[in-house]
Amino acid sequence: RFISNYYGADHLYTAGVLSDIAKLYYLEGKYEEAQQLLSCAMNIQQGVFGEGHRLLIPNQLTMARIYQAKGETKRAEQLLTDALAVEQETLSYYEPLKGEIYTVLAEVYLNSGRYAAAQFACDKAINILKESVGLDSEITAMALNCQVRLYVLEGKYNQAYELGCRVLTSLEAAHLPSHPSVITVNETVGMTQEVKTVAQVIKTGAMVR
């Protein structure tokens, strides 16, 4: 309220503060509160820049993640598709923001069972990000985390576990264990190991019979 009163309800600085608080709410799992604040921030930005401006895309990515967390995959996909269309018109191919859009798209497709589309988006994300920010970047790590999940679905458990461990080691070298990306990849690696163990037990049981 202080920021809004000091700078004005429609000031870009107010939008920035609202966006930051919304991201914190999202990380805490307070999706409704996050969505409400982020909507206000995006309305301010649209009033200044107009619809379809690339400076709105970071908040569109956050909103897409909120939609995804709430199970609203169609809304998330539409928002990401719109953002990608803006990026295609304004930026070169090897642009980190474009890679991040493809990463979140891959997550949306994975969570909705559209695995071929997820693989396509994941490949795009990794290709763009490894060239623009490198394999050790946090945003590249999240794209690689999608690939780990895809490997698991394909039954490539060893490849999944090895890649997941490499990504996790890289993240842990730069961030605390409580960092959201470290937690996400750690959970994926743990899931991979569990699925691999179950698959081995089933295979062993089949061989015994």
Give your account of this protein's structure.
The protein is built from ten helices and no strands. The protein is elongated and about 65 Å long. It is mainly α and 209 residues long.
How would you sum up the major sheet? none
Secondary structure: helix percent? over 70%
Helix-strand makeup class = mainly alpha
Average pLDDT number: 88
User: Based on DSSP secondary structure assignment, what is the total number of beta strands?
Assistant: 0
Uncertain stretches of 5 or more adjacent residues: none
Which range does the strand content fall in? under 5%
Report the end-to-end length measured between terminal Cα atoms.
69 Å
Strands, helices and their partners?
Elements: H1 2-7, H2 12-27, H3 31-49, H4 57-69, H5 73-90, H6 96-111, H7 115-132, H8 138-153, H9 157-174, H10 180-208
